[in-house]
Design a protein that fits this description.
single chain; 336 residues; alpha+beta; Tetrahydropterin Synthase, Chain A; four-stranded antiparallel beta sheet; 13 helices; elongated
Length: 336
């Protein structure tokens, strides 16, 4: 074995460290050289050290470089720090960049901070910019929810079934915190129901269906929403059922049942009263029979006390027999 002096060992270690560092540098260089060179040629320079830093921070360097190139070619200056921050916040850097380019081409003022806020709020910022340029048509009601018409009843009781189409344009300034399409559909549906409900006759609505759209549009239904309503058009209007007549028929049926119940109640009360009277008659008859049963006792007591003689008794029996005969001839009840 050849002994290596201490100084030689340190030199070898230094060379080894330099070699390892060189190898790592070459690996990183070849890994990010393509992105760096592409950004350099596109006029959106991003340093190699920044690309390595993105990789260490778990940021996709390719997304950031592509966004920088896209924005630079459109004449929009956005720093890599802002793009990285939005990426780390789980934002869609590519879509935000596309929205900024589209807004710039359409002369729509849209700073990066607002676009990033819209994206982080869960809205499709690119679709919002497109809707600002090309207005969007919303069906009211939404067929996807299973309801195909808005049903309303005029004052004459006739039901009308309406389909409306609402043309809206996205309001970039109100996208953050503004209400969604569901609110627009709900407000338009409410306005249609109110307008038809205030009409004296369904015929007037059929003659001038545009009165519905004008009345609803004047209500300012886009307040507090992320959209600006451009127009409300009645796509279809049909006559439904006669709700008023149906309600009147149901009310008449309910009244008939109520009157029948009241009549049945009175009949039952009359029957109960009749049974009470019959019971009272039977009770009084029982009292009469009980009183008549006291007569023989009273006669016997009169005989015993000498207040009634035999001849008086026979005369009483003759009167009673005569009375029974007259009663039988007259159809009366025979006395006991």
């Amino acid at each position: 074995m050849i002994d290596i002096p201490g100084g030689g060992a340190a030199l070898i270690a230094l060379i080894a460290v330099i070699a390892v560092a060189a190898i790592i540098f070459l690996m990183l260089f070849f890994r990010f050289f393509g992105l760096w060179f592409r950004a350099l040629l596109s006029g959106a320079h991003v340093g190699l050290s920044r690309l390595v830093g993105m990789w260490l921070r778990h940021v996709n360097p390719g997304v950031i470089v592509d966004a920088r190139i896209m924005l630079s070619k459109a004449g929009i200056e956005v720093s890599s720090d802002l793009l990285e921050t939005h990426f780390l916040a789980s934002g869609n850097v590519r879509k935000v960049s596309q929205a900024l380019v589209a807004a710039n081409k359409a002369n729509i003022p849209l700073p990066f901070q607002r676009a990033a806020a819209i994206d982080l709020a869960g809205r499709d910022v690119l679709e919002a910019v497109r809707t600002s340029v090309n207005p969007k048509v919303i069906d009211c009601p939404d067929p996807a929810k299973g309801k195909h018409t808005i049903d309303a009843v005029a004052k004459d009781g006739i039901q009308l079934q309406v389909k409306a189409r609402v043309t809206v344009r996205a309001n970039i300034e109100r996208l953050v915190g503004g209400a969604t399409e569901e609110t627009i559909i709900a407000r338009v549906g409410e306005g249609i129901v109110t307008t038809i409900g205030s009409a004296e006759s369904y015929k007037k609505v059929l003659e001038n269906p545009d009165t519905i759209s004008r009345t609803v549009l004047e209500k300012g239904l886009d307040a507090g929403t992320a959209f600006e309503i451009l127009s409300i058009d009645i796509a279809d209007i049909d006559v439904g059922t006669n709700i008023g007549a149906k309600l009147q028929a149901d009310q008449a049926e309910a009244d008939k049942r109520r009157f029948q119940a009241e009549a049945e109640k009175r009949r039952a009360a009359a029957q109960a009263q009749e049974q009470e009277m019959l019971a009272l008659v039977q009770e009084n008859r029982a009292k009469v029979v009980l009183a008549e049963a006291q007569i023989p006792l009273a006669i016997a007591e009169a005989f015993k006390n000498g207040h009634l003689g035999v001849m008086d008794y026979y005369r009483l029996k003759n009167v009673q027999a005569d009375t029974d005969m007259r009663s039988s001839i007259g159809g009366g009840t025979k006395s006991s």
